[in-house]
C-alpha cells in the first residue's frame, strides 16, 4: 500500500476517486472493486470497494439492495431515482442511514476499507458511504487457559474487544460502567478500550491513567502487555504494577474495587490497574469456597512467596556461614549428602537453578501434549543423574524443586517472574555475606517496593503505611454476610474485592 495524502476530499468524479484508491492499494490482490448501476435507464454509476478477506460473503450488495427496497417507499419509482435523491436521503439521515457512515475525504475511505467496511462512491456526488460488513475469523469463548477455575465461571475473554465489552456489560448491568476507545499505531491502527465504574474509581487515578495512555497515540500496540510500559510507574522494576486476567468475573470484581481495566483488539488478556502488592496474592476463586479453606489458601500463597524468594539463599547462608544454627542431626545428614560434591553450595545452586529454568522454558515452548511430559521427565532424569554423578546433593535438588513449586502457587505469573529474577541476587549476596547479606537484600527490596506508586497509589498499600484492618481483610477471607455488611458501610473508594 502506498502512502498518499489522507486529507484529499472525495471528488464528484467517480474515476478520480477510483484512481486514488487504486494508487493506495496497489498490489493488494484481495481488494475488490465492484461497479454497479441504478437510476433512470440505469445510467447512474457507483463503485463498491472492499477487501474480500475482511467482509462477510455476499455483503457487498447490502447497500444496493437497501436502496432498491427503499425506492418505492421513500425515493420514488426506480425509474426516477437520481444521485441527488441518494445524497439527500443519506445526508438527512433517512430510515436506513444510521447503519451507513457518510465520508467526506479519501483518507476516511481508505481507513474504512482497512477496517473491514464496504466503501461506496457515487458519480456526481462529492461524498462516499461506508457500512460495516467485517467478518474476521475468531475463536469462540472457552475456559480460561492461564486461570483455570474449579468452581467459578468457566468462560474466558477472547481476542475481540467488542465481544469482551459485551460480556462485561452482561455481568455488570449499570450505566455507571463506562468504556472509552482510542486507536494506536499508524500501521496497525489497533483499537484500545479502557473501562471503569464511575463513582467507584478515584478521579485522580483516572486522570493519571488518561494522561499516561494518551502518550501511545503513534506507538504500534500489538498486545495488551504493550500497554504496561506506559501505565506502570517504573519500567525497570522486577515487580509487576498491573494485573492480567482472562476471566470476566475477575474483571467485574476489579471494577467494583475501583480499578481501571484496559484491553487491546487482538489480545484476550485484560489489564487491571493499578496493581498493588497484596493483590497479587488474591484470586477470585477465593470467594467461591468456604471461608476457612480460602483463608488457609491465601496464607499458603504468602508462604509460597517467601519460599520462592528466600529458600535457596537461606540454604546457602546456613550451610556456608551459619552451620551452628542447623540442628546437629540435620547438619550431619546434610554433610553426609554433600560428601564428594566438588562445588561449593553457591555453584551447586546456580547449576541446579539454571537447568530448572531451562526445563521450565522448554516445557512452555514445546507443543502442549509433550511439553509437560518433557519437563517432568527431564527434571526427574537430570536430578537423579546429578545426584548419582555427585554434581549436586539430594538436599540441593529438594531446595530447588521446592522453590520452583512455590513460584507456581502464585496466582499471577508476572509476580512469579519477579521472584525468579530476585532469587539470584539474593543467592550471590548470601554466598558473600551470609545472613547479614540476606537481611540487607530484603531491606533493599522493601525500600524499592515502598518507592513504587503505580498511577499515584502506594504499591505497599495496607503494609506501608500500616493498616491492620485492611491487611487482615486481605489475608483472611471474611464470611459473605460479614463482607457484604462491611462493604455497605464503606465509601465506594474503600470497597474490598467482591
UniProtKB/TrEMBL annotation:
The chain crosses the membrane at residues 299-321, 391-410, 422-449. Pfam families: GerA. InterPro entries: Spore_Ger, UPF0353/GerABKA_families. GO terms for biological process: spore germination. One of its GO terms (cellular component) is membrane. Keywords: Membrane, Transmembrane, Transmembrane helix. Belongs to the GerABKA family. This is Spore germination protein. It comes from Cohnella terricola.
Amino acid at each position: 500500500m502506498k502512502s498518499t495524502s489522507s486529507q484529499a476530499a472525495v471528488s464528484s468524479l467517480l474515476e478520480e476517486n477510483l484512481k486514488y484508491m487504486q494508487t493506495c492499494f496497489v498490489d493488494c490482490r484481495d481488494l475488490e472493486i465492484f461497479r454497479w448501476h441504478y437510476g433512470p435507464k440505469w445510467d447512474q454509476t457507483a463503485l463498491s470497494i472492499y477487501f474480500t478477506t475482511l467482509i462477510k460473503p455476499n455483503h457487498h450488495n447490502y447497500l444496493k439492495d437497501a436502496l432498491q427496497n427503499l425506492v418505492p417507499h421513500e425515493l420514488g419509482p426506480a425509474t426516477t431515482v437520481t444521485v441527488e435523491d441518494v445524497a439527500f436521503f443519506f445526508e438527512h439521515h433517512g430510515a436506513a442511514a444510521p447503519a451507513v457512515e457518510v465520508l467526506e475525504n479519501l483518507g476516511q475511505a481508505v481507513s474504512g476499507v482497512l477496517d473491514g467496511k464496504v466503501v461506496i462512491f457515487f458519480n456526481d456526488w462529492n461524498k462516499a458511504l461506508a457500512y460495516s460488513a467485517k467478518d474476521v475469523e475468531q475463536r469462540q469463548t472457552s475456559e480460561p487457559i492461564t486461570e483455570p477455575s474449579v468452581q467459578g465461571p468457566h468462560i474466558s475473554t477472547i481476542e475481540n474487544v467488542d465481544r469482551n465489552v459485551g460480556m462485561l456489560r452482561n455481568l455488570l448491568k449499570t450505566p455507571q460502567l463506562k468504556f472509552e476507545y482510542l486507536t494506536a499505531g499508524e500501521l496497525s491502527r489497533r483499537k484500545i478500550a479502557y473501562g471503569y465504574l464511575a463513582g467507584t474509581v478515584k478521579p485522580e487515578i483516572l486522570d493519571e491513567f488518561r494522561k499516561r495512555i494518551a502518550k501511545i497515540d503513534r506507538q504500534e500496540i500489538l498486545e495488551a502487555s504493550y500497554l504496561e510500559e506506559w501505565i506502570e510507574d517504573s519500567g525497570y522494576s522486577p515487580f509487576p504494577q498491573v494485573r492480567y486476567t482472562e476471566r470476566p468475573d475477575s474483571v467485574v470484581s476489579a471494577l467494583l474495587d475501583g480499578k481501571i481495566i484496559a484491553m487491546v483488539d487482538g489480545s484476550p488478556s485484560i489489564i487491571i490497574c493499578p496493581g498493588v502488592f497484596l493483590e497479587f496474592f488474591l484470586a477470585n476463586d477465593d470467594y467461591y469456597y468456604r471461608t476457612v479453606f480460602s483463608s488457609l489458601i491465601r496464607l499458603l500463597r504468602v508462604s509460597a512467596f517467601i519460599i520462592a524468594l528466600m529458600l535457596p539463599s537461606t540454604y546457602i547462608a546456613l550451610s556456608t556461614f551459619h552451620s551452628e544454627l542447623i540442628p546437629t542431626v540435620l547438619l550431619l545428614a546434610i554433610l553426609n549428602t554433600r560428601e564428594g560434591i566438588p562445588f561449593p553450595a553457591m555453584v551447586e545452586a546456580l547449576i541446579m537453578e539454571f537447568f530448572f529454568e531451562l526445563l521450565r522454558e522448554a516445557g512452555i515452548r514445546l507443543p502442549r501434549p509433550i511439553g509437560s511430559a518433557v519437563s517432568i521427565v527431564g527434571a526427574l532424569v537430570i536430578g537423579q543423574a546429578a545426584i548419582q554423578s555427585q554434581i549436586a546433593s539430594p538436599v540441593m535438588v529438594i531446595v530447588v524443586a521446592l522453590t520452583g513449586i512455590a513460584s507456581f502457587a502464585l496466582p499471577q505469573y508476572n509476580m512469579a517472574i519477579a521472584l525468579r529474577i530476585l532469587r539470584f541476587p539474593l543467592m550471590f549476596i548470601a554466598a558473600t555475606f551470609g545472613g547479614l547479606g540476606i537481611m540487607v537484600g530484603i531491606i533493599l527490596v522493601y525500600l524499592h517496593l515502598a518507592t513504587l506508586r503505580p498511577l499515584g497509589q502506594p504499591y505497599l498499600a495496607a503494609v506501608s503505611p500500616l493498616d491492620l484492618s485492611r491487611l487482615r481483610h486481605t489475608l483472611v477471607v471474611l464470611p459473605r454476610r460479614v463482607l457484604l455488611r462491611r462493604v455497605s458501610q464503606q465509601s465506594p473508594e474503600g470497597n474490598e474485592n467482591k
